[in-house]
Amino acid sequence: MKNIIIANWKMNPATNKEAKKLFSETNKKAKAKNTEVVVCPPFAYLGLLKGKNLGAQNVCFEGKGAFTGEVSALMLKDLGVSFVIVGHSERRKYFNETNLQMNGKIKNSMEAGLKPILCIGETKQEFEAHLKPDVLETQITEALKDITKEQVKKIVIAYEPVWAIGTGENCSVDETMTSIVFIRKIISELYNREIADNMQIIYGGSVKSFNSADYIKHAGANGLLVGGASLDVEEFIAIVKSAE
Ligand code: PEP
Question: Which residue's CA lies nearest to atom 7 of ligand 1?
Answer without folding.
Answer: 227
